[in-house]
């Protein structure tokens, strides 16, 4: 735990004083240089910090940190309204529940309610989710007007696993199915070994505010559970949307 707290202190100090170097960080935090260096490397590997291109030997925060801050701010009221129902959904299914908000042609993960199982789905807060591969992304994609869907399908759609759907025709069929049943399903399309069921959340004006998913190991979240979990997700969606502004 101490190492985590130290890394957070390093991140906060860089965010406040950037660009800043190793020696200055060590002095400001009263932490040995070797410890600060390990934290910097860890935070860089995680995508939160990077070496400054203009100031050799100094560090700055990345665009990921900025985008998460923006997404977290825009999703604050959504999270507050959604959390009671999402907590109930997590307890009822025993699987991890993720909440994400739109940011351009991706979603950004702003909340995660972890499964108590040792083997579980896990995505770090701030993870950017591709619309064609993540269950939340597909739920969001299906909520868009056809013109915006076609614009998205005309972009490059990378294959993330052997089961990622990248063919526009196949995605159009999947979008039609999602619209018909109300929820999206992904079987190992984003990560090997992980399955998920997701729905979109709309505000009173009809605009999609975010999406949430029930995610778990494909060995446990099997196709025979999709309809049941989909119904549970839709019930949670309805309860949340009644309270959204």
UniProtKB/TrEMBL annotation:
One term of GO molecular function: DNA-binding transcription factor activity
UniProt cross-references to SMART domains, sorted A to Z: HTH_ICLR
Domain of life the protein comes from: Bacteria
GO BP term (any one): negative regulation of DNA-templated transcription
Regions annotated as coiled coil: none
Matches recorded under Pfam families: HTH_IclR, IclR_C
Cross-referenced SUPFAM superfamilies: GAF domain-like (SSF55781), Winged helix' DNA-binding domain (SSF46785)
Residue ranges constituting the HTH iclR-type domain according to the UniProt record: 1-70
The entry's keywords: DNA-binding, Transcription, Transcription regulation
UniProt domain IclR-ED: residue ranges: 64-245
Record-linked PANTHER family: HELIX-TURN-HELIX TRANSCRIPTIONAL REGULATOR, ICLR FAMILY, HTH-TYPE TRANSCRIPTIONAL REPRESSOR ALLR
Full protein name: IclR family transcriptional regulator
